[in-house]
Structure to design on (144 residues):
């Protein structure tokens, strides 16, 4: 990626070990390229989303009091560019369809394969860079 701006990631799952492992894996794999906010509390994640930029939301589908689709809607309310990756231990065709219908970028089954998580995050970072480049190019054309 050519951008020097860090990719902002919000990682939320009610299982502390999932959060710790995912954060350590992403930090080790991407180093300073990511700015990761992680929490086990969906309310904290929602509050963070309302106040700060989030490029990628990685969220559990099933958390106490909040469904992953609701987290997706909250993230997109503040930033329509936010890419959403769901993680879940429980999957049905209906859940996957609902996630896709609401604009989820990807859907990973728990236990999450480490290489798959890294790959999906890298793909989303590259996609964000392409979109941002297209917007910058469009703005340059509009100004000239």
């Amino acid at each position: 990626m050519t951008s020097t701006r860090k990719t902002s990631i919000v990682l939320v799952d009610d299982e502390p070990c999932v959060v710790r492992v995912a954060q350590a894996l992403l930090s080790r794999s991407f180093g300073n390229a990511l700015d990761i906010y992680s929490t086990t509390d969906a309310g904290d994640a929602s509050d963070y989303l309302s106040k700060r930029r989030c490029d990628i939301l990685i969220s559990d589908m099933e958390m106490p009091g909040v469904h992953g689709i609701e987290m997706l809607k909250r993230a997109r309310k503040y930033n329509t560019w936010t890419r959403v990756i769901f993680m879940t231990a429980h999957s049905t065709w209906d859940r996957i369809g609902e996630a896709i219908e609401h604009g989820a970028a990807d859907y990973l089954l728990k236990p999450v394969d480490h290489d798959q998580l890294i790959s999906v995050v890298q793909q989303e970072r590259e996609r964000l860079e392409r979109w941002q480049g297209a917007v910058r190019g469009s703005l340059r054309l509009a100004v000239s």
